[in-house]
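Late entry, written up from scratch paper. The run itself happened at the end of the previous shift, but nothing got recorded in the book at the time, so transcribing now.
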Amino acid sequence: MAFAVAVCFRFSAVWLQAQATATASETSEGEKLERQMASDIQAKNWKAVEARIADGFQSVHPDGIRDRAGEIALLKGMNFGAFTLSNFKSTTIGDNIVVTFTMTVAETIDGKQLPAKPAYRLSVWKKGAKDWQWISHANFTPIR
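Output as recorded:
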């Protein structure tokens, strides 16, 4: 009986280690996608940004809901300053990654300066035939 219990504990430890490894790789992929998108937006690399936004993209911001065209117009109209991304959490569900994180950025949207305070963000990415596509985003920074 003691041997069976020891074997169960050993397999549990191996399974938990495998779960931790999977979570770490998921987090790094989600974090990588978000950091690249933020860098491309800041650099105004619109070709790269637009290539990663899916046709059915949807976003929500404190001032309303946007589709792909509306989000691209919003991004192109922003003055995106220095930024910090932190507190990443990623979950992989099939071919999708759900990423939550905190972003601190000095930005101007629609001519309004937003406070450079940490704000929560949420993105959903879908694995396409060639690369990851941004399919949804929520930005909870209040627009004043």
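The beta strands are 53-61, 64-67, 79-93, 96-109, 112-114, 119-127, 132-139.
(Scratch paper discarded after transcription.)
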